[in-house]
Amino acid sequence: MKLYSHAAITAVLSAAVLVATPNVLQAQEQHADDHQAMHDAKLPKHAVAVLASTSDSDVKGVLMLDQMEGFVRVHGKVIGLTPGEHGFHIHEFGDLTKADGTSAGGHYAPAGHDHGAPGKQSHAGDLGNITANDDGVATVDIKAEDLKLHLVLGRSIVVHGGKDDLKSQPSGAAGPRVGVGVIGVANTEAK
């Protein structure tokens, strides 16, 4: 077995570092550029949810979500409802695989608050009720305070068959889910 001197080992390692350094520096610079690009990327400001009917329902609708300063504006129309009030929530999953809408999970509640009226001490997804007229049409225009649009992308909006009493746990006793739509990034150029 041949032993190398300390000087020979140091020379070989120094040469290896000199060869590797430009590649390492280049990789570090690329990583920094990629990180900056992600940081500079703009978060979506507009989203859309196209509501589909569940089970025996005829509910349909299109809802737009717009990130505003300090709130998300939810607006649009829902049709095919029975006249009166209907629970209206953001649910935790964008999963529409079950015909009754239950695969959308429970209300979006990242802070763990109890269900209630829209506000800071309730679920982030508690949007209250929407009201359908005698023709079964609800015109929606809600300010969801302190909600961030990018945190609800890929989740769902659910319309319930009955009125949300804004107090019963865990979901306001609003009845079955009659319309569900996944919240996706809107194509603002398509308008």
Task: Summarize the entry for a quick read.
With about 190 residues, the protein is of the alpha+beta class. The chain has helices spanning about 5-40, 150, and strands spanning about 45-55, 60-70, 70-80, 85-90, 125-130, 140-145, 155-160, 175-185.
Overview of this protein structure:
By secondary structure, the protein is an alpha+beta fold. It has two domains: about 1-40; about 45-190, Superoxide dismutase, copper/zinc binding domain (Immunoglobulin-like, Sandwich), CATH 2.60.40. The chain has helices at about 5-40, 150, and strands at about 45-55, 60-70, 70-80, 85-90, 125-130, 140-145, 155-160, 175-185. It has an eight-stranded antiparallel β-sheet with strand order 5-4-7-8-1-2-3-6, with no helix packed on it. The termini are far apart.
Task: Furnish the topology, listing elements before pairings.
Layout: H1 6-40, E1 46-53, E2 60-68, E3 71-79, E4 84-91, E5 126-132, E6 138-145, H2 149-152, E7 156-160, E8 177-185
Antiparallel strand pairs: 1-2, 1-8, 2-3, 3-6, 4-5, 4-7, 7-8
